[in-house]
Amino acid sequence: MSMRRCERQLLDKRGFTLLEVLIAITIFSIGLLAVAIMQISAVSGNRLGYEVTQATYLAQMQIDALRSSDIATLIAGGPYNDPNNPIDETEANGGIFNRSWVITNRTANSRLVTVTVAWTIGGASHNVVLSTITRGGGN
Question: CB 3.0 to 4.6 Å from 114: which of 15, 73, 128, 131, for a disulfide?
Answer without folding.
Answer: 131
